[in-house]
Amino acid sequence: AAIMLSTKANVSTVRPASSRARLVVRASGANGSTSAFADGAQVKVIKPVKVFHVPKHQDGVNIEGFVGTVQKNCTQFKGKVLSANFPFVVKFQQKIGDAEAKFMVHLGDDEIAAV
Predict the structure, then answer these.
(1) 40: region left, alpha or beta (phi > 0 left; psi from -120 to 50 alpha)
(2) Which end of the chain is more exposed for a tag (fewer CB within 10 A), N or C?
(3) How far is CA 18 from CA 12, 21, 64, in A?
(4) Residue 99 pLDDT
(5) Rg of the Cα trace of the chain?
């Protein structure tokens, strides 16, 4: 059970009714970053990841082995630490078949490695 504390413009704060409930906050000492992948770093996809938003390839593309550039690390927003599931936005420009494809993918640090 939870107690609703306030509601303002689609924002609500919920506190557990139990006094024994704990608030868990994740943070790291590296300025909120969970890994060493900085913006602009070249990375390679090391696990099989199938994406369906690649232009002209709606049946999906396995991007394992593709090399891309880290565009953004989503572990911080306006100075606050976030716990994003897939914190790295990686931009790919890859030839797939006979056409050049440009697309971005959110990936986790266990799915990419520095080149």
Answers:
(1) left
(2) N
(3) 18, 6, 45
(4) 87
(5) 19
The pTM of this model reads: 0.68
Is residue 2 scored above 90 in pLDDT? Answer: no
**What's the rounded Cα separation, in Å, for the pair 28 and 3?**
30
Beta partners for residue 43, in sequence order: 68, 114
Query: What is the rounded CA–CA span in Å between residue 65 and residue 112?
Result: 9
Whether 5 contacts 14, CB under 8 Å? yes
| Structure tokens that stand for 3 in this block | 């107690």
Q: What contacts 49, CB < 8 A, 6 or more positions away?
A: 62, 63, 64, 105, 107, 111
Using CA atoms, how far apart are residues 114 and 44, in angstroms rounded to an integer?
6
Give the mean pLDDT of 16-29. Answer: 49
pLDDT classification of 27: cutoffs 50, 70, 90: very low
* DSSP single-letter state for residue 34: S
* Tokens found for residue 113: 């490695």
